[in-house]
Write a structure and sequence with these properties.
alpha+beta, Jelly Rolls, 3 helices, about 25% strand, 2 domains
Length: about 180
C-alpha cells in the first residue's frame, strides 16, 4: 500500500515537473485550468520562486561583471630597427607605454655571425639607461632591466655596440 502511494506520488511529481519544463520551453498556449494550478503553486511556493528569481538575477549579474571586468591588455609600442655597427648605432625612438622595468629586443636578420649588445636609453636623459641585452643569431631575443626607475609615456631609444665592424642587424625594439 505504501509502495503504491510512493509510486503514485513520484509519477505525479514527475508529470508536474515535466509539464512545467515543457511550459517553460514551449510556445504552446496554457489552458485556463493550468493557469489556476500555476497560481496555486505560486501561492504555496512563492518563497521558492523568489529564491529561484534571485539566483537568476545573481547569476546574470555575475556573468555581466565577468564580461565587463575582463582585463584589456596594454601593449607597449614596438618599433623596427635596422642598425649597422659602427655607423648607425641608434634605433628609432619608441614611447614606453607600461610600467614594466624591462626592455625587449628581437633580431630578425644578422648579416654576420656575431653578438649585438643593446642598451635602452631615455631620450630626455640618456644617463637613465638599462643593463645590456645581448642578441646573437643563436639567441635572437633578449631583454634587460633598467638601472633606475623608467617612467612610462616618455620616448626611449636603443643604442647598440658590437665587437665586429660591419655587423648589420634588423629587428624589433620595445622599451
Amino acid at each position: 500500500m505504501i509502495k503504491e502511494i510512493v509510486i503514485k506520488r513520484a509519477k505525479k511529481l514527475a508529470q508536474r515537473d515535466a509539464d512545467s519544463v515543457c511550459q517553460y520551453f514551449s510556445y504552446q498556449p496554457i489552458l485556463p485550468q493550468q493557469v489556476k494550478d500555476l497560481k496555486k503553486q505560486k501561492d504555496k511556493g512563492g518563497f521558492k520562486m523568489m529564491k529561484r528569481h534571485w539566483k537568476r538575477v545573481v547569476c546574470a549579474a555575475t556573468a555581466a561583471l565577468c564580461l565587463a571586468g575582463t582585463a584589456v591588455p596594454t601593449f607597449a609600442e614596438t618599433v623596427d630597427f635596422d642598425v649597422t655597427y659602427p655607423g648607425d648605432i641608434i634605433s628609432p625612438r619608441a614611447v614606453k607605454a607600461d610600467g614594466e622595468q624591462r626592455f625587449y629586443v628581437t633580431a630578425t636578420y644578422f648579416n654576420l655571425y656575431n653578438g649585438l649588445y643593446c642598451t635602452s636609453h631615455l631620450l630626455q636623459d640618456p644617463g637613465l639607461d638599462s643593463y645590456q641585452a645581448v642578441i646573437t643569431p643563436d639567441a635572437p631575443s633578449s631583454s634587460a632591466e633598467y638601472r633606475y626607475f623608467a617612467p612610462a609615456g616618455i620616448p626611449y631609444f636603443m643604442q647598440v655596440d658590437s665587437a665586429l665592424n660591419g655587423l648589420r642587424v634588423q629587428g624589433r625594439y620595445t622599451p
